[in-house]
Amino acid sequence: MKRAVVDPYKVKGEVDYNKLINEFGLEKIDNKILKKIEKHAGELHFMLRRKIFFAGRDLNWVLGEYEKGNKFFLYTGVGPSGPIHLGHLLVWYFTKWLQDKFDVDLYFQFTDEEKFLYRKDLSMEDVQKWLNENMLDVIAVGFNPDKTHFIIDTKHAGILYPEAIKVAKKITFSTIKASFGFNDSTNIGSIFYTSMQTVPSFLPSVLKKKKIPCLIPHAVDQDPHFRITRDILPKLGYYKPASIQCSFLPPLEGNLGKMSSSKSNKAILTTDSPEQVKKKINKYAFSGGQPTIEEHRKKGGNPDVDVSFQYLRYLFEEDDNKLKQIEEDYRSGKLLTGELKKYTIEKINNFLKQHQERRKKAEKLIDKFILKI
Ligand code: TRP
To answer: What CATH number does residue 243 fall under?
Structure first.
């Protein structure tokens, strides 16, 4: 098997998450950490129970600070380059759970310059359109409007830039090259960018003039940015940010890489109609079932590679017992692929219906969410 590549700009090959833990030097989320989270949250989110959020950095520390009354803030973000798909929602709905359970502020960064700089095919106009669309989805997740603050890189440049240069001064070109696979032909905006993604992890400390712990929920591909962030923040007099990291929701065609909005046939979008969801699942979702019903009844299916089953596990079936039953029935051949797909389609459509209703009302809330200085 070829070695998988995982960095913010490339996810290629079959990802072995245990290997990644070693390669990146991540901490596995163990029972001790789960217990601590449960103690404060009163329950464990199913994404924690199922190890979808599987690793992190300094979780013990950030929870310990919380116990001492030194509350953290949450920080996550998105680069507006296309429509929002289920892979984004996975991180955001979990982040909302953290916000609700720990009653904390969330800083949400929209890196419009990042996508403009990295994507040859996107104009600034395109990016601004996606920025607006993406903000609607973030609001639709249901974050607390009083505790959620949108940072838009080009709009908040006035407060971000003076901090970003302090970060940039401590990063060398060779670090950036090694972290992201860049070379001498990479545009210079992209080289600077990590310093912008670093700023929200200490901006609240700047604004409130005291050191505040930060916890970043994100998909594991963003870790290379935050490794750099963690090296630099103590040098600037701030805490290293802690993180909690998830694996990738598989794209429709199967368990390789991550879902991506640049290939919309491979992703289910938040704006998809029930018919579109039905078609995408029925036509494209990789099946772990057997080619014929007879064979399926005899040999059973494989839920581990079955995309519909994986979507239930990652996002849409909160009930562990129900999920286990589906898994057993599928493995034994009692449950057919068509039946599994039908159930998954219903679950996704129910979820999206509610998301879309909130999304429709989101436009007039945008202003309330944007960080005011
Ligand atoms: N670089 C991320 C992307 O491409 C966007 C981002 C900015 C982000 N800050 C973040 C993601 C913090 C997770 C956490 O989408």
So the answer is: 3.40.50.620
